[in-house]
Amino acid sequence: MIIEKGASIVYNGNMTAVEKKSIFDFLKTASSSFYGYSAPQFSQEPFFEDDFIETCENAEPENTEPGKADSHENAAVYEGSAAENAGTLKDKASSLNSAGNTVNNETKGLNLAKIAEKVQQCRQCILCKTRKNAVPGEGYPVPYVLVVGEGPGEDEDNTGRPFVGKAGQLLDKMLEAINLDRNVNCYITNIVKCRPPMNRVPMPDEADSCSGFLQSQIHILKPKLILALGRTAVQNLLKTSQGINTLHGKFFECNGIPLLATYHPSALLRDPLLKRPAWEDLKTFREKLREMCPDYDENFTKK
After folding, report:
1. Distance CA 139, CA 77 (A)
2. pLDDT tens-digit profile of 82-124?
3. Alpha-carbon distances of 263 from 215, 217, 227, 233, 281, rounded to whole Å
4. Which SS3 state, helix, strand or coil, does residue 111 take?
5. Full DSSP string of 13-29
6. Of residues 212, 240, 213, the one with CA closest to residue 228
7. Average pLDDT of the chain?
8. Looking at 66-173, which runs of residues are DSSP E strands?
9. CA 284 → CA 16, 173, 188, 226, distances in Å?
10. CA terminus-to-terminus distance, the chain
11. Tens of pLDDT along 3-55?
12. Which of 65, 70, 99, 221 sits at 20 to 30 Å (Cα–Cα) from 245?
């Protein structure tokens, strides 16, 4: 049984997201071949929501006041099992945010901890065979900004945390320059959650296998803006083949959320000449963020 929900499609059954994606691609190809053009219903990639949302009709309600879970001013740092299960992070705020359990009416039963658990258990592509640790992501559970990179590197594979190597240290400085921080007001993740061997570019099937996790994270976090780092991130998020030199510094829309592409920190380390255009991109991003959320950087203090 198929239930259409706008851009989301819910399939009742036990099929995996990869299998559902294969069926969607088959139907799209068959339709295009029969009619001579791509039908409108296949113009947008579906989000297979039921792979990650688990029904919790009998679950106890969260002990939060109405609206508080979606308020940046009143976002809570969650105590309990989520923190206990995030022992790889030294900083308490980081660990709680990485496995945060913000729940609202649209995402009842779905939270970052459950997604992280599914990422750790995932065996849908070959990357699971060579990883040391899967890297779901970490950051503030009710963020203004979602930062999306390509995939984990060696340091990330060793620690299970995103952007902790040299590129991650540079990213932290880039974010701090526009009053953003993973422990204060943004969340950081990648297109793929496991390290590709030798840090190669993720293959399309690997990115497809992880796309449901990323879409679920976007669905829960509901960021005001998305910052896409590098060619792989922006091409997968926007489903485009255009290069980063063409796309950087421009705003697009992803799931109804403004998205700006800029250069990956690794590219800046390889070519310092890219630092100037990347800084201009960040200033453009900051202007948009201040326009949408005038108070986002009031009393900003890096934790």
Report:
1. 11
2. 333 333 333 433 333 333 333 333 345 689 999 999 999 999 9
3. 22, 22, 10, 10, 9
4. coil
5. SS--HHHHHHHHHHHHH
6. 240
7. 78
8. 138-139, 145-149
9. 39, 17, 19, 13
10. 48
11. 444 444 444 456 666 677 778 777 766 665 544 444 545 555 565 545 544 43
12. 221
Tokens of 284: 């453009």
Q: What are the strands, taking DSSP E only, across the chain? A: 2-5, 8-11, 47-48, 138-139, 145-149, 186-190, 225-229, 251-254, 257-262
What's the predicted TM-score (pTM) here?
0.68
The kind and range of the H/E element at 147 are strand 145-149
Sign of the alpha-carbon dihedral angle for 202, 206, 212, 217: negative
Residue 33, token pair as written in the block:
């071949």
Q: Is 239 left (phi over 0), alpha (psi -120 to 50) or beta?
A: left
Residue pair 228/259 in contact by the 8 Å Cβ criterion: yes
Residue positions counted in the chain: 303
Q: How far apart (Å, rounded) are the C-alpha atoms in residues 179 and 165?
A: 21
Strands 225-229 and 8-11: unpaired
* Alpha-carbon span 193 to 181, nearest angstrom: 21
Alpha-carbon distance of 17 to 45, in angstroms, equals 12
